[in-house]
Amino acid sequence: MTSSLLITAIKLVEERGIVTVSVTELWQNFPMKEKHLWAICLVVLIGGFAVGNIDFGHKFFEVQSIHDLFEIFSSAATVFAVFIAWRGINAWRRQASGQADLELARRLAVGALAVKESAVPAWVDAKFSINQFPFGAQSLNPPLMESIRVSMGARIKSREQSRLEFGALLQEAKAIWGSAFTDKYNQLIELCVICDRCAQDFISWADPNVGPNVYLKHQMNMQQAEDYLRDSNCLDAGGEIGKIIKKMTEDADAELERHMLRK
What are the residues whose beta carbons fall under 8 Å from the beta carbon of 40, sequence distance 6 or more? Predict the structure, then answer.
């Protein structure tokens, strides 16, 4: 440390061309690591000086009886036990937190898979609806159209339930991991919602009892869904729609895997 102090002083003299160097200038140009060492040495020096001037008396370190000695050992054991307990509690907290993260990640993985698997039939229903409306609601015979409407409605309800359950998991994950993670599923959820709305519009549009104004409204909604799918490169995806859906959640799936593996 002394050599560092001397080197710093010499550098200041060489740089500034001065013969005398103030303590303030020397300290400001001193390396941070050396500052810490000097500060520690100063504290130790002051502490040693203070302790050295305290008169404990010759009886300070004497034990009056064996009972006092055992009390000292008992106190030391208590302090040690408290320290061990504190370490144990911290370890338990870390383990419990890690276990909770693992369980949440597992449930999210299951929920995300269910939504991704439901996204393909949602796209199929939307695609069918978009392809059908140019031909008119009466292009199919009424019994067949009614059968399509009923089965499509049942599928929509099932998919909505899956999204609701997944949405609850995302809210929990958002509270723990932040929105940066949950936002990565937004594109998938948006696709599913728009496809199901398009299918729902088709069900109402194909109702033989619907009025002309409502008929046009649902047809317009289906056209908007068509525009969205076209802009998302999903309208004519065909057999590639599964890969497109998987790509939408690549980042989220990778982060979810890290949570599951506790990386």
Answer: none
